[in-house]
Amino acid sequence: MAAVLAMAEARQGCSFGCHPTVVNISVESCAGPEVVRSTICAGQCYHEDPVYISDYDWPEQKTCNGDWSFEVKHTPGCPVGISYPVARNCKCAACNEDNMFCGRFLGDVSSCLSF
């Protein structure tokens, strides 16, 4: 059984999933440069390209996105707070052309992207 699990893990190239990731965002405040710690959505969503590519019948593409809200950080000595986005949850969902690029990626991805 252990050999079967080891072989399954060896074959597993990329892992797919969309998850919250903590990042530091540099912002300008009245006190000077500040670093805000926030959460973004990061990861890869499974997509299988069709054998025949047509501009008229393209399969639905899933992207890593989620529900967002804004938080405010108050800096001592500044009358105005710094507003920044925070991801509340993340999921693979249909690409929304209103707020992101949903076109074809024409480059090559030689290996899994890491986040």
UniProtKB/TrEMBL annotation:
Annotated SMART domains: GHB
Highest taxon of source: Eukaryota
SUPFAM superfamilies to which the protein is assigned, alphabetical: Cystine-knot cytokines (SSF57501)
Main localization of the protein described in the UniProt heading: secreted
Any one Gene Ontology molecular-function term assigned to this protein's record: hormone activity
InterPro entries xref list: Cystine-knot_cytokine, Glyco_hormone_CN, Gonadotropin_bsu
One cellular component term from this protein's GO annotations in UniProt: extracellular region
Entry's transmembrane regions: none
Keywords recorded for this protein, A-Z: Disulfide bond, Secreted
Pfam families, sorted: Cys_knot
Family per record: Belongs to the glycoprotein hormones subunit beta family.
Protein name: Gonadotropin subunit beta-1-like
